[in-house]
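Students often ask why we bother encoding 3D structure as a string. The short answer is that it lets us treat folding as translation between two languages. Here is a chain of 200 residues written in the first language.
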Amino acid sequence: YLWLEKKSFQVYGKKLSKALFEPATEEKILGFLGDLDHIFSGYIRGQLADVAIMCCMLSITLSAIGIKFGIIIGIFAGICNLVPYFGPIVAYVGTISFGLLYGQNTKVIIAVIALIIVQQIDGSIIGPKLLGDNVSLKPVFILVSVIIGSSLFGIVGMILAVPVAAMIKLMVKKFIDNRLKAKGIVFNQKGEIVKGKNKR
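And here it is in the second language, the structure alphabet:
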């Protein structure tokens, strides 16, 4: 319902901002909200893309090995990948439980090894790459932000760490760009000053 009424909220928000704020303040607020929307929507897109990829990879891996209900386990574990560290736990528990229940001891060992490889690929390459592309953060910053977020605020911190870090990075970048623009300083791609004070 909120999504269907998005246009109405936007119109009401514009009227409210016009009534309460001066044009300069209104422009800053709308710019901030636009950046916030871009960052969080990009984060959601990245997470959903990661879930879709993991559903496919886990389902194909487990069903190819021959684990009972491998497709169901893969889909459920992929969806649970929305919560950091929860997806892998579901994948391991589901695989080991159903595998042992149906006497697939050898296949369980192979499946666990395969899951470790798949999870490493997702954690080191796929996840950071998707999130990095959508929220403009390098993989190393994503990993650091998740570690800091989890240590400070637990599960909630892990979930919100990436979009919050991306928003902070964007605000810092805009601040620096505005300061350089005010001073008339321009850098090239190599980080060398090509215009302004202390040109080298």
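Translate back mentally: The radius of gyration is 23 Å. Keep this in mind for the problem set.
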